[in-house]
Protein 1
Amino acid sequence: MAYLQFRRESEAGGVGRFYGLVRRHWEHLLEQVPADCALCRGKSRGLQLCDACRLDVTRSMAAPTLRCAVCALALEQPGCPDCAARRPAFDRVIAAFDYAAPGDLLIQHFKARHRFSHARMFSDLVAGAVLAAKPALPEHTIMVPVPASRASLRRRGFNPAAEIARGLAPRLSFALRPELLVRAREGVRQTGLSRAGRIAGVERLYECPYRVEDAVIAVVDDVLTTGSTLDSIAREFKEAGAASVIGLVVARTPYSLQV
């Protein structure tokens, strides 16, 4: 099926627009509800971090740190070790914060302790990073979450990337098209694998079942470590005709913490 035909069918009718209006109204109401900050338990609203904790979590991204222009890795000196090892197929990464204290605790609670409500907070943090990024992403950007394995879905009960994307799309007014990326096989867990093992483990793990001619694709995930998953996905999308592929992630792992 051609991508343009798929897009017309997806956007036909008013059901999607009605759902979007209801969701935006619900989000506005939720923003007014008092809640505890996920880090300090101080006063906040709408399941978000308090202002002080938000600043602490995103501080390193806001600092004038030398970073790779492609994968957003914090660098001690010019030259990215991740991109030098293998030139990535993706064009750019935008991350809300570095995978370091105190933000790493939020990720761990979200994935290991099933703090499902953190998805909304992460969507808001990533949206803030995207809106502040230069150059800005085009309005016709299509958002696609990284599909989870069946084992991961059984273990957690939800797909972290999909839940973040679900809250992120309306904040950025981007189309959300999870059908554009599927898992070709189950693969193995990447946690604990070496760099070479990560690259080999995601080879042809995902596929795009549609043509996406000249599309700008934003791939959503929770954490980017070596970039092997995003690289594999970007290669699939570009083979399917995408003009560019951008990674939108909650956290970017420092090189010192990579296996």
Protein 2
Amino acid sequence: MAKIVFAPYGSLGDLHPFLALAIEMRQRGHEVVICTLEVYREKIDTLGFKFFPLRPDISPDDRELAREMMDTRNGSEKIVRELMLGNIRPMFDDLMKATEDADVLIAGEIVFASHSVAEKRKLKLITTTLAPISMFSTYDSNVYPNAQFLKYFNFLGRPFHRIVFKGMRKVIGSWLDSYKEFRREIGLNEDHNPIIDGKFSDLLHLAMFSEILGKSQPDWHSSTVQTGFCFYDGQKDLGVMPEGLEEFL
């Protein structure tokens, strides 16, 4: 039996595939811990999993923040640079607490502290992707929210997309100063990019989406396994009416 820590971050769309995996792992006899946003504590408690909060603490119901993050021009940079990398230290601290005595850490895609935690803890790390656009394949043409012009050039094929990804690495590399400083402070190699090349675990990377959305590509990371969608439909809850709800109804 292994102790497995799941660390999703984001909306219910990010959380539910992890709950599907967590329920399956528990049924197979493993100890499961969920480390995610505080707002989901009640949901995790209802499922009977041990819960740890994960910062930065935001609410999916924050409409202003959602508007900023969904902005096609600057949303991606706000999520990555300000929200996640800007809070890398508290995220690291929370994950270190959650992974005490753990054997495996299964992390959401933007949980950028996961690699550092796995290195410090000497944990097995499994990384994840929920959509093919985040696999960065030169074989599978994509149009990114802040680069709509790409749809006019996708016919140029792989050579063009290699140039696009080279430009992406340069831009994103300029966002990593605080991340590199953080890695130096905790005694790890600063030469790590958790967003593009360094985000894939060499042990196992789960592509958690259907082949209908994107088929496996030759340049996916060698450790990738495409699982298809992992569905959580609420049927594995404790099956009891929450206290006071029946009276309220």
Protein 3
Amino acid sequence: MLLSKRVALVTGGAAGIGRAIVERMALEGAQVVVVDLNDEAGRETVSAVEGLGREAVYRSANISERLDVHNLMAACADAFGRLDILVNNAGVVDTVDFLELDEAEFDRVMATNVKGAFLLSQAVARRLIKQAETSTDINAPAGAIVNVSSITAHFGAPDHVAYSASKGAMMQLTKSMALALAPHGIRVNAVAPGSIEGDVLDALLDSKAQRQAAQIRTPLGRFGSPEEIAAVVAWLASEQASYLTGTTIWADGGRMALNTVMPERKDV
């Protein structure tokens, strides 16, 4: 197993890509702290993990609030005694045109997607450094942070401006944190999903025509699954990716390699 004896904290872990990440990490041997604001879905995710014979706990938290972040650190210590991996997956989406986007909505998206990731990453990094200083195992990995960005960080979206901006910021946060934490041995990487089945895709592509257009511009000709993203995240968090830091993996079905559109597929 890739993550045996590791403890992972996954934000936005109650549904979609987040839940897939939680379940994959648990199957890879990690104990998981599931963080979300949807209490019912969060507890269902924990039950699913326990049904796999693995360990997980749920904690409700608003990661854009410093006090909630502080309490999360205490919750990790209480539950499992340590922390090794952070996955910044929590995110919200705006769904209005740029000219109609108001300040409150912009702030809401940036607070969760960027500020929350910053606050939690800083708190976790401090914990990882202190943990390494007191560890008796000099060969133990220092820790890893994996951020979930998006292909919209590169391409943009006229009716999801705040979301696109936040995911671009996530990529720069990944690079900057990687440089800042490299002297401590802490790795920071990101995965940028393309079109992945789930609630976020439904919000971004709310018509059959939009979904068909997205498939046409995806070389593999299909949308991805949350489980496919979870596999990348688990690998980045593991020691198999021990020489990677500051990088973003584009899990996008080939869209970043494409400068035109694919021929229309009759099976779409």
